């Protein structure tokens, strides 16, 4: 018999991740598993090609972003505008994840929510390994062609590197286009 105690659902606040979350909630209910929701802030570099300043932060599909608790030392060396932007993004992402978790708790408990900083697929895989996750459920945007080459596929990388099974969920309104 398959036993699942922890299910991880990485989110990016897009329609695709919302759709995957519904699968994750249903599976967590079925297996009476703990559901882990994580959002990963991707590092973004601002400035000219030489001497660029790196600001840890990102803007997800909803315009939200965050790191857990304050700037956590991430604002070092930033001018006032950069630190202010990072703090706005942190607050926005924290609120978005809290709201998402609150909605999910109406359907299932217990839920763990975390915000990570780094490269999405790396942080997802590390979290799954460190927390001994039994299944990862994540949405896929279904990009093909040049967007796939330029942006890459977080889901594809997680499938290749994850220490556990990964269920990828395609949003029903995204049509498959044959290459």
Any overview of this molecule?
This protein has helices at residues 15-31, 80-105, 120-130, 145-151, 154-161; strands spanning 6-10, 34-41, 43-46, 53-56, 111-117, 135-140, 166-170. It has 179 residues and is of the alpha/beta class. It has a five-stranded parallel sheet with strand order 5-2-1-6-7, with helices on both faces. It has a two-stranded antiparallel sheet with strand order 3-4. α3 (120-130) packs parallel to α5. The longest helix has 26 residues, at 80-105. The N and C termini lie far apart (39 Å).
Task: Furnish the topology, listing elements before pairings.
Blueprint: E1 6-10, H1 15-31, E2 34-41, E3 43-46, E4 53-56, H2 80-105, E5 111-117, H3 120-130, E6 135-140, H4 145-151, H5 154-161, E7 166-170
Parallel strand pairs: 1-2, 1-6, 2-5, 6-7
Antiparallel strand pairs: 3-4
Helix pairs in contact: 3-5
What distinguishing features does this structure have?
39% helix; globular; two-stranded antiparallel ribbon; alpha/beta
Distance between the termini: 39 Å
Oligomeric state: single chain
C-alpha-based Rg, rounded: 17 Å
- Low-pLDDT residue intervals, each spanning 5 or more residues: 46-77, 146-151
Number of helices: 5
Characterize the largest beta sheet: strand count, sense, and whether it forms a barrel: 5 strands, parallel
Compute the number of strand runs: 7
Backbone shape:
globular
Order of helices and strands: EHEEEHEHEHHE
Instruction: Round the mean pLDDT to the nearest integer and report it.
Output: 77
Main sheet: strand order: 5-2-1-6-7
Secondary structure category: alpha/beta
Strand coverage percent: 15-25%
Helical percent range? 25-40%
